[in-house]
Write a structure and sequence with these properties.
It contains 15 helices and ten strands. By secondary structure, it is α/β, with parallel strands linked by helices. The N and C termini lie far apart (67 Å). The mean pLDDT is 97.
């Protein structure tokens, strides 16, 4: 298995991300997030769902006008019907996605249709959209519970109809990396159409499944900022970008210094807080408290950090708390240019640990100085 040379990130924060329960971006927020994604280097962006109408349609029109004449590709998501597709193209989308399922459970119990209906309607819709001059992406939704031989037949049929891309959606996030890679490998071996990873994170495999899928031959992949999305969310953009960059030497053209500001912007718009230990962008990622870690980090920043904080505009911090050692106390006192004597540090350390337990958190460097001054 090998990565394709031209892998493309497509962010779906503004579509699948916003479908997270309780998340509702205003038109202004959608425009601002779009601008930030573009500024970060993302060129393929799933913008939203035109069929929602109302303010969503107005926002999409503004977004299309904003990128007109640029190299930014905005994708409009559509249900599997001609009216949706026609309305999206009429609005100005020249990149459209068609959502259709391939699993028996979704065909039977969600849309009450047969496999033969699916093959027929998918080809009709692809042909119509191509005749309208659109780039056409189409789903095999719930691919994890689909008959793989049927998915291969479906892929061949929609390619013959003119589809540009097949989105392989692990809709309920049930696959592990080996299973997802196997599906993409089998399709890649049998059909030449470009494939896209769309991995939900229900078992925490979102990023891993995406990378496994790319290594098996997929060209496109979906992420969302902060991993927001339905249920347990989607592959996190920052994590996926950095994993591909650091582990696989794949540069997607993303300005990694902007990942944190983008993360904070989406967190605010989605009214959610980031975990402090959120990989890449969390406040604890480059923070150190335990004695052994801080001692090593003070001497050599890379001792307990996988990447240089500067790469992602992070900030290294020596935290004073229950698990601190004397090296941290010296660091805090020196940082405040406060005089200290070695023989008082054991008492200071004992005080710091008890106060941090009472506070249920870290102590400021100023507080460390004040505690030191209480020692006789």
């Amino acid at each position: 298995m090998a990565f394709k040379e031209n892998i493309i990130i497509e962010d779906t924060t503004l579509r699948d991300g916003e479908q997270a329960p309780g998340v509702a971006f205003s038109g202004e927020e959608k425009i601002e997030i779009l601008d930030s994604l573009i500024s970060s280097g993302v060129k393929w962006i799933e913008a939203g769902i035109n069929s929602m109408g109302g303010s969503e349609r107005r926002s999409l029109r503004m977004m299309l006008e904003r990128v007109e004449g640029s190299d930014i590709h905005l994708i409009g998501w559509n249900r599997g019907n001609k009216e949706d597709i026609a309305n999206s193209i009429d609005l100005g989308f020249n990149h459209i996605h068609i959502g259709l399922p391939t699993s028996e459970i979704h065909l039977n119990d969600s849309i009450s249709k047969s496999r033969s209906w699916l093959l027929d309607i998918a080809c009709q819709l692809v042909d119509y959209a191509k005749q309208r001059g659109a780039f056409v992406s189409i789903s095999a939704e719930d691919v994890g519970r689909s008959d793989l031989n049927f998915v291969i037949d479906y892929a061949a049929a929609i390619q013959e109809a003119g589809a540009d891309r097949l989105r392989l959606s692990d809709t309920v996030g049930i696959l592990n990396p080996q299973q997802y890679a196997h599906i993409i490998q089998k399709i890649t071996d049998n059909v030449s159409i470009d494939t896209q990873c769309h991995a939900h994170n229900d078992f925490g495999y979102g990023v891993a499944n995406t990378i496994a899928g790319l290594s098996a031959g997929a060209r496109y992949f979906h992420t969302t900022v902060n991993g927001i999305g339905e249920r347990a969310g989607m592959p996190d953009m920052a994590q996926t970008v950095m994993a591909l960059k650091c582990h696989n030497d794949i540069d997607l053209g993303i300005d990694t210094k902007k990942l944190k500001s983008l993360s904070l912007q989406v967190a605010k718009a989605s009214n959610t807080n980031l975990y402090p230990w959120q990989p890449i962008v969390g406040n604890n990622v480059f923070s150190h408290e335990s004695g052994i870690h801080t001692n090593g980090t003070i001497k050599n920043g890379s001792a307990f950090e996988p990447i240089n904080p500067d790469i992602v505009n992070g900030q290294r911090k020596i935290v004073i708390g229950k698990h601190s050692g004397k090296a941290s106390l010296k660091y805090a006192l020196d940082n405040m240019q406060h005089f200290w004597e070695e023989e008082k540090l054991d008492k200071l350390l004992a005080l710091v640990r008890e106060v941090s337990i009472i506070k249920k958190g870290e102590l400021s460097y100023k507080s460390v100085c004040e505690l030191y001054d209480t020692i006789l």
